[in-house]
Amino acid sequence: MPKHMSGSSGGVQPGYWHYLPKPTACEKCRAMEGLWFKERPGPVHPNCKCEVRQEPMPRVGIVNTLQGFEDHATEKFDAGQKITVTIRNLGPFWAGARIWVDRTKWKSTSYLKAGKSEVFVFTKFSELPVPWEVFIIIAVGDNSTLQYTIQG
After folding, report:
1. pTM score > 0.85 for this model?
2. Domain limits at 95?
3. Is the same domain home to 70 and 47?
4. Are residues 97 and 146 in the same domain?
């Protein structure tokens, strides 16, 4: 690797910022508690002593299985603005699933042979961390097992 391309990250790590007001903080500072920012916010007022802390981007890695027609699961979690859902048919028969995200967006797999998988990407633009609710149901394929993986 050339010298000008050294291994330093050269910037802020992905994440979000929030205020941690002290117990004796003024009303303005206490009002900032619970708010999240993409960039480091400045002090609320001159001589502000409240702590501003960077938190890492919430990551999720869920792996679970569904077995048999209409078996279903709901996963609720916080993550970034993009998640990936992978559905894999573990067999022994053809099977398919439906995925609902936040009860508004949905996608369906094709009929998957045993051993095959499909990947779906969902995005949502919101303040960080982003709350997600993913509902997955086996829509086709009795006596088959589907594995789902959610990453974000």
Report:
1. no
2. 61-151
3. no
4. yes
Residue that is written with structure tokens 């502000």 in the block? 48
Based on the fold, state whether residues 146 and 74 are members of the same structural domain. yes
Question: HEC profile for the chain?
Answer: CCHHHCCCCCCCCCEEEEEECCCCCCHHHHHHCCCEECCCCCCCCCCCCCEEEEEECCCCEEEEEEECCCCEEEEEEEECCEEEEEEEEEECCCEEEEEEECCCEEEECCCECCCCEEEEEEECCCCCCEEEEEEEEEEECCCCEEEEEEEC
49 and 69 together in one domain = no
Q: What is the torsion angle, in degrees rounded to the nearest 10, for the CA atoms of residue 80, residue 115, residue 93 and residue 136? A: 0
Is residue 6 domain-resident?
no
Does residue 7 lie in a domain region? no
Neighbours of 45 (CB within 10 A): 10
Q: What is the mean pLDDT of the segment spanning 92-117?
A: 96
Q: Is it the case that residue 118 has pLDDT exceeding 90? A: yes
At residue 62, φ and ψ (nearest 5 deg) are: -110, 130
What would the pLDDT profile of 36-60 be if each residue is shown by its tens digit?
Answer: 787 888 888 888 888 888 888 778 8
- Verify cis geometry, omega within 30 degrees of 0, for the bond prior to 92: yes
